[in-house]
Amino acid sequence: MLSVQQVSGGYSNEAVLKDISFKVDQGELFGILGPNGSGKTTLLKMLSGILPFQKGEIFIRGKRLQEYKAKELAQIVAVLSQHSSQTFSYTVKETVSLGRYAHQLGLFQTWSNEDEAVVQKVMKQIGVSTFQNKNIEELSGGEKQRVFLAQALAQEPEILLLDEPTNHLDLSYQKELLDFLKLWTSENRLTVISIFHDLNLAGLYCDRLLLLEKGMINIDHIPNEVLREERIRDVYHTDIQKHPHPKVAAPQMVLLPRVYKATNSFEIDETCISVSEEFIELTSPMPLRTMSSGVIGSGTGWHRFFVNRHVDKNYNCSDHRMEMAAFLKSQGFEPSETVGMMTAVVLEDVVSIRVEQADFSIFVVVTAGVGNAIDASKSERHSFEMIPGTINTWVFVNGELTEEAFIQSIMTATEAKVKAMNDLLVLDKVTGTIATGTSTDSILIAASQTGKLLEFAGTITPLGKLISKAVYQCTTEAIQKSSKRKHI
User: Fold this and answer.
1) Which CATH superfamily is domain 2-255 in?
2) Where are the domains of the chain?
3) What is the CATH architecture of 270-487?
4) What is the pLDDT of residues 349-395, one digit of tens each?
5) Residue 25 to residues 28, 95, 226, Cα–Cα distance (Å)
6) Residue 21: which pLDDT band, with cuts at 50, 70 and 90?
7) Among 43-57, 139-153, 301-315, 424-438, which is the least confidently predicted range?
8) Residues near 269 by beta carbon (within 8 Å), at least 6 away in sequence
């Protein structure tokens, strides 16, 4: 559809772009990235024919760009600039209708039935037909942007060039605009070439990305390759970290401000915890990076408060998350800053221990009831019941964990818990075999993300050894306490 071959040029005799070559296929949503001054807008102006280039060639549908007459090019390429201006006080329909100019014939332009049909169709598709008779000056910024997009699409172009189309739009309009463009590329085979400043939007919507650096191409590839931490850090000269999008297969980047690490040293230990009949509470002086299976605060996040709440063994609720959130609020905890768990265990039987090495330490807290103990290898013989017997394991690490270490910490803690149950001969009452846990076990790994970097937490690593020792000891003692209470 579009081919750029060794193009160089810019303004006057200054070459802003140097030896640029890439291709865009029909139906692609193609993003152009780069820091300020890298040549993004210059490139877009060259593609639209507004700015001549000094060297190289640009082909559209196999024909040299210079060979197109202005009106002929306008039937193929439409441009939606960053700051669309409106000189006259037109209505929405009149503004959209300007997009039909390229298709009208003769010295005295005539408005055909086809023109009217196209304008009405595009206005309906973009969602502006309901206010087509309204003066455009009365519209909000987001509504105006939709009108100018409708104007561009009324040209019935094969290629749409966009200069930062989401600039000045709020989140809902950004999503609406890009959702629509993505739909048109797939259903109508429209080719969209757009400048993006927002790396996350580019990674989320584009099929391919072109990254410019100092007027040259750094890389032209799929988003996952372009948005690599090292590459973006080098090109944009800023601290950034890559994460997968939670819902779709797209890379997302997060900024790392200079103050992202706590400046005051602190340690999670027994002085941070308090126990009552209703709940165990641990409060951290700073938010901790967490990975958990809590009723509240599950998944990954940052939390300051950790609550293990006692509930009756017959506890049953249609929406336990909502009920738990209400409970936390009633006790003065903000649910968004809290990891909350439930247990039927008497909280007085909690066991905790702090263990350390020379340059880091961990603090482990365990409550354990095994009335609903399960052998995971034979779980198909059990019916599904959410019984709050539960072994709840908390592991607080005074150190910095990698993503790998978080996951390995869960594995190591689970292995230590299973070993404790095996040594105590805890049985699955249904199968009569050694249990591996309970049906509602929960786990938390929380790290201060300060101090020593701990890359791994497998069983024989320094961190893994501490977790293994502490979780095994706490689980063993907690099960023994709980079992002893049942026999009193």
Assistant:
1) P-loop containing nucleotide triphosphate hydrolases (3.40.50.300)
2) 2-255, 270-487
3) 4-Layer Sandwich (3.60)
4) 999 999 999 899 999 999 999 988 999 999 888 876 655 558 999 99
5) 6, 30, 18
6) very high
7) 139-153
8) 354, 361, 363
pTM for the model: 0.81
Q: What is the residue whose two structure tokens read 């998350």?
A: 321
Beta strand 240-244 with 453-454 is unpaired
- Sequence letter at residue 32: I
